[in-house]
Amino acid sequence: MSDVKGKSTSDGVGKLTDKQKRFVEEYLVDLNATQAAIRAGYSEKTAMEQGYQLLHKTSVQKAIEEAQNKRLERIQISQDEVIRRLLENADIASGKKAIVLTQIRKSEDGEIVGDDVAQFVYEPSSVNKALELLGKHLGMFTNKVDVTTDGKPLPTLINVTFSDEPA
């Protein structure tokens, strides 16, 4: 491991510079490579290209995957859980499923009992918004267009025109 700023350090996923590690952390915030590159300290002018290049580095990809897996273990929510809760909210909103508020208390003999105290109307839009944001954070709802040919990136073409006329 190196303590020289910007130098590579070994972390089990290959060697990443401190700036690349910062990119990985920032990328997990919103899954936006350009903004992550800017927040990690790359130039705003080159951030889009830097983000693209970083996402194509195997060591960075592995670091992102490891960090996402660690977070999933920490928060203990999966894509299946998000979908299950969205479906549950859809059932509630459409009236297929009722919400009953139950008050739980201990009886005199120490037994836990629950009394249904009310049914109420539930507005799932705020819950759905939170679940949508969580789903986006888990990479479930991405609006990406794959611009490749047979899995390979499109070639970059540069046209250069020469003229005999003086400038």
TrEMBL record:
The keyword Transferase does not apply. Transmembrane segments: none annotated. One of its GO terms (biological process) is chromosome organization. Gene3D superfamilies: Terminase, small subunit, N-terminal DNA-binding domain, HTH motif. It comes from the Bacteria. Keywords: Viral genome packaging, Viral release from host cell. PANTHER family: TERMINASE SMALL SUBUNIT, TERMINASE SMALL SUBUNIT-RELATED. This is Terminase small subunit. It comes from Haemophilus haemolyticus.
